């Protein structure tokens, strides 16, 4: 019998993921993701590769908290089918404060019951958090119940071969619209506390680059709680990504490790971006202004919740490169699979839709609508599609974060580390994205200067004794007189073009 409680007995949450990860079924028969995963004994005596709670046994079956991925996917689909169907029988109404704390629970015995079908998995209990509130969120983003069920439950979920440092599992819906991620308990608690404010923000501003949460659930099986969140998918699998970045606007340890660089599609960081794309990415004026306005608004929301250490996920599809590349069998199969299904229902999961309300985009970029990226150019004039979103938002500036920053500031430049007070972090994040990463296409550039390097350096010694440089970004004509002083990370050789600019206190008006 389904039951509801007024206070949650279990919290759920969300952390970062790799949206560019390939499908496990397409890329690896064994499903083993990381060469650094350690072998630990498994309950059955079979050796298992394990990262966090995620494991892969010698037969190639992925496990999470000793539950196989196959069983977990089946439980998720059975549970969501039941809870969405049950909710559809209830009349729609306004969201009340107590709705954020409701937890509905239903037991799924293997032999079935008068409410649940029989299945081939171990018995499990499925919990749904704040169902009425999340129904509102889904409707706000244009996802009716039938579409939600069709995306998640009409076809088998596809496991992504990326667990990240946390060892989480990721699934993508067969139509590429939704991502399911397993959650950690600490982030879970923070997300539940965030829900009322999240609701208020979305009601006032539905166009955002923040993660879209569509459902929070928990599968209880084998004495373990497996928490999951359903959210928007940043990347269509049918579009090849040529490079991707995780950007914070910080210098401390913000370069991809050698181990990361050995991956087929590494995730690069801030210093890598300035070395690879020193001139930045060029957008038309309307798109640039709308994007920066969206970032400013989102950062203000995160700051109000005392959230920091988030990142901008940036994946780049180079249209000109793609036209010269032969179509791989994997890409062709994904394209066929996505075309076989019903057309993409909406652009709610794309960055392009988030800023269309702020700017009317031109038709300078010839790309199919289903590619759903933000049109841009690099300094060579190559046509690009950008896929972006803000990730890692469940980091509150707690006592431990304050302690971490204080310790790092003693050893390193305090303005260079990524753990900062939320207000400073938000302002630095915005400044870097809208000056070093994204830039306006110059209105009437001189042919000889159209795509010259946008970085200019001069050396001097700062008040702290560290070597400093003067950084002049190439943005547009009205920004040419804006000179920003930045400080070089200790130990970095002078004159290197991959040094990330850090705005001095004078730019921000001091520490606030």
UniProtKB/TrEMBL annotation:
Keywords: ATP-binding, Cytoplasm, Kinase, Nucleotide-binding, Transferase. It comes from the Eukaryota. GO terms for molecular function: ATP binding; phosphatidylinositol kinase activity. It is found in: Cytoplasm. InterPro entries: PInositol-4-P-4/5-kinase_C_sf, PInositol-4-P-4/5-kinase_core, PInositol-4-P-5-kinase_N, PInositol-4/5-P-5/4-kinase. GO terms for biological process: phosphatidylinositol metabolic process; regulation of phosphatidylinositol 3-kinase/protein kinase B signal transduction. Residues 68-437 form the PIPK domain. GO terms for cellular component: cytoplasm. This is cDNA, FLJ93256. The lineage of its organism: Eukaryota, Metazoa, Chordata, Craniata, Vertebrata.
């Amino acid at each position: 019998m389904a039951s509801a409680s007024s206070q949650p007995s279990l919290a759920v949450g969300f952390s970062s993921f790799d949206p560019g990860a390939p499908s496990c079924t397409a890329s690896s028969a064994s499903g083993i993701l990381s060469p650094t995963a350690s072998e630990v004994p498994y309950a059955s005596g079979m050796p298992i590769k394990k990262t966090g709670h995620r494991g892969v046994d010698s037969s190639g079956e992925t496990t999470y908290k000793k539950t196989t991925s196959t069983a977990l996917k089946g439980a998720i689909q059975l549970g969501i089918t039941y809870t969405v169907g049950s909710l559809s029988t209830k009349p729609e109404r306004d969201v009340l404060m107590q709705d954020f704390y409701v937890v509905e629970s239903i037991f799924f015995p293997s032999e079935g019951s008068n409410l649940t079908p029989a299945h081939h998995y171990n018995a499990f209990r499925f919990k749904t958090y704040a169902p009425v509130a999340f129904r509102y969120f889904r409707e706000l983003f244009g996802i009716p119940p039938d579409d939600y069920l069709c995306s998640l439950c009409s076809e088998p979920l596809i496991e992504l071969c990326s667990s990240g440092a946390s060892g989480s599992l990721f699934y993508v819906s067969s139509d590429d619209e939704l991502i399911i991620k397993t959650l950690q308990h600490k982030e879970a608690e923070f997300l539940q506390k965030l829900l009322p404010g999240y609701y208020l923000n979305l009601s006032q501003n539905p166009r955002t680059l923040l993660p879209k949460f569509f459902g929070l659930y928990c599968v209880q099986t084998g004495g373990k709680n497996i928490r999951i969140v359903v959210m928007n998918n940043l990347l269509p699998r049918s579009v090849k990504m040529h490079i991707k970045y995780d950007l914070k606007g910080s210098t401390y340890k913000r370069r991809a490790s050698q181990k990361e660089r050995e991956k087929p599609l590494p995730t690069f960081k801030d210093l890598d971006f300035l070395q690879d794309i020193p001139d930045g990415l060029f957008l038309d004026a309307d798109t640039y202004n709308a994007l920066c306005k969206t970032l400013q608004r989102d950062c203000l929301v995160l700051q109000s919740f005392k959230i920091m250490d988030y990142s901008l996920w940036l994946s780049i599809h180079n249209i000109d490169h793609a036209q010269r590349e032969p179509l791989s069998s994997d890409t062709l199969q994904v394209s066929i699979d996505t075309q076989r299904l019903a057309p993409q229902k909406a652009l709610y999961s794309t960055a392009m839709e988030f800023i269309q309300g702020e700017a009317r985009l031109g038709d300078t970029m010839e790309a199919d609508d289903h590619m759903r990226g933000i049109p841009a150019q690099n300094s060579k004039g190559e046509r690009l599609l950008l896929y972006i979103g803000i990730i890692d938002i469940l980091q509150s500036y707690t006592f431990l974060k304050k302690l971490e920053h204080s310790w790092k500031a003693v050893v390193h430049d305090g303005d260079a580390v990524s753990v900062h007070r939320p207000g400073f972090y938000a302002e630095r994040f915005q400044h870097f994205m809208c000056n070093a990463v994204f830039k306006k296409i110059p209105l009437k550039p001189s042919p000889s200067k159209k795509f010259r390097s946008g970085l200019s350096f001069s050396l001097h010694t700062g008040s702290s004794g560290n070597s400093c440089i003067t950084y002049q970004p190439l943005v547009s004509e009205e920004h040419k007189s804006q000179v920003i002083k930045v400080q070089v990370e200790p130990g970095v050789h002078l004159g290197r073009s991959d040094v990330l600019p850090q705005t001095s206190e004078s730019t921000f008006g001091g520490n606030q």
